[in-house]
Amino acid sequence: YYAQTFTRATQLGATASFTFNGTSITIYGTTSPNHGNFTVDIDGLEQMTSGSSGNNQYQVPIYSVDGLVATTHVVTLTNRQYAFLDIDYVSWASYVSSSQGGTVSQLYIDDSDTSFKYLPASAWSTSISDLSNFSNSTG
């Protein structure tokens, strides 16, 4: 896991929200057989996706979109099953206007940053009971 952290929920309806200013975003997490469906809402447009896969995969994109208008966006993930939903970190790109050099900045933020809003807070956890099963015993 990025910065040796992650945040996960199994509660149906648990949400994680994040506000960013940019033109693209990628959310990284875990996919595995015990992960389920979740929705991603950006600026009121909702899309169903799945975190389920045949084997455990860590630090993989669980959602990505580009071509967004260069403005502030709100992204919300909602757990749609009684299954795991893990968030590891988020990266996004912001375009700086040509009058300021016209560059693209790639920004990263860890799941433990206070910019994330996890609701209800009691549904989200940063600890695991089977830590020894993870690479270097990190969660």
Distance between termini?
6 Å
Report Rg. Answer: 15 Å
Strand count, sense and barrel status of the largest sheet are:
7 strands, antiparallel
| Overall average pLDDT | 85
Number-wise, the strands total 10
Instruction: Point out poorly predicted stretches.
Output: 130-139
Shape: globular
Structural class: mainly beta
What keywords describe this structure?
55% strand; globular; 139 residues; disordered C terminus; mainly beta; 0% helix; seven-stranded antiparallel beta sheet; single chain; three-stranded antiparallel beta sheet
How is the topology of this model organized?
Elements: E1 7-9, E2 15-31, E3 37-42, E4 45-50, E5 57-79, E6 85-87, E7 89-95, E8 104-110, E9 117-119, E10 124-125
Antiparallel strand pairs: 1-6, 1-10, 2-5, 2-7, 2-9, 3-4, 3-5, 7-8
Description:
The chain is mainly β. 0% of the residues lie in helices and 55% in strands. It is built from no helices and ten strands. A hairpin with a 2-residue loop joins strand 3 (37-42) and strand 4. The radius of gyration is 15 Å and the shape is globular. The N and C termini lie close together (6 Å).
